Amino acid sequence: MVRRVAMTIEAAMSDNFDHVIVGAGSAGCVLANRLSAHGATVAIIEAGGKDRHPYIHIPAGYARILDHAKLTWGFRTEPDAATGNRALDYPRGRVWGGSSSINGLGHVRGDPSDYDLWAQKGCTGWGWDDLLPYFVRHESFAGGGEGRGTSGPQPIEHLAETPELLDQFAAAARAIGLPVNADMNGPRREGFATFQQTRRGQRRVSAARAYLVPALSRPNLTVIDNSLALRIVVEGGRATGVAIRRGGEERIIRARFGVVLSAGAIGSPHLLMRSGIGPATHVAEHGIAPVFDAPGVGQNLQDHYIVRLSYRLTDHRWSANRRIVWPRLGLEVLRWLTTGKGVLTWSPGMMSLFARTEAGLDAPDIQINGGPLSWQDGRIGVPETEPGFTLGVWQCRPHSRGSVTLKSARAEDAPAIAPRFLTEHADEACVVRGMRLARRWMAAAPLQGIVAREVRPGPEAESDEALLAVAKATGGTVYHPSCTVRMGGDANAPLDARLRFRGIEGLRVVDASVFPDIPVCNINATVLSVAEKASDLIAEDMRA
User: Which of 53, 68, 282, 480 is catalytic?
Assistant: First the structure.
């Protein structure tokens, strides 16, 4: 455990706290900061350790740590016939900052209609007008602009380097009738824009760096890391603590006011079910005594399914493939160290195109992002020797629903993660429309003489059936799992609109699992906003 206060680990682990938070990811770090600022005593439990690995702090380092044995949980999905019976890698962060320490740094707000739909589903207080102040509160965006925050804890910056190819992409977007936006998080979501990153200068700023580290000097905040949460302790219908294992020793961390699960859309339902809170028949099948029958726990898993297209460019001038291998990579390292620019500041998504592929939609149904890099066999990590770039196409609001369930009662064992991608016909049709939109964009006049040809899937995949076959055989997750412990106005929703667990006092969930439905885009900015609002809800309940 890493401490910045005088309290010893023994004292921390035997004392009572007002709040015990499980998970030092995006949401947990926000809560630890905000609740301790209110004067409450807070313990935050994290399975991983401090974010010391240098690749965490180099923006382009994501390519080397998505499958890191110590920094991630090493999850894989269950094979599914709809996606070629493949077990897909499913990275989730296991380190200070959670997935905000290993993600692609993209900071993207959802469409306002996303949150208004939440409110329509009984999530009172979660519409766009309700959440906008929390987006503003968490942001520190030097560019400013309508509805943007400029003084929050989380730094947000435009790309440190805008490759020349992105200007041509913008021109091509205009050529097919789509707008170009100076601020992708401004009033208009539809159209082309360059990405914004959770970065300050040359370095990533995870939620741990933005929220947790600045709060470590407070004597009322305790970080208990390298500790595996075993179960939630429930006594008399109330959550009173969390049992953990650290260094072979099992202890209970007690909570006077409440326990907050912020272990993510995989970790939170997994811990609930291991605690006997979930579908009673399912937990009993694994030898766990049911504590509370909550059939919705672990259900409603939603994620974005991405299909990557790659293209050959006419000249290395347009591509960074040669810049990220030695000896040129050495020059890029020097450039990053001395100027804070270059390919080491890049993300997997450098630009984004939001578009509607059907009439009558209230928000974009397709997001396409990417940048001037192409990878051997389409897997991030090893660039192709020829100049190229990659586009990732995904459906913004999938209809397919998956689940997170138990494989065993052991805390060390991964759960069964079944996203069930492309199991609805509407999703199949949408992804094909998205691939055709990408092709139309790349064929626009401003890219003539720059884009040489499509490499994957290639011109031989022309029919809808052929394109769908490629999508099923090669696609994967964009790492946006959500909605597995949803809030809602109906009795089947595990959480009420204040994120309190129905049927168990003193228990809340605050992370991406609480979403009723996935937003149209990357989810980290929404998680930060949800956690900011949750900190106010918890503080209000403490004062009541």
Answer: 480
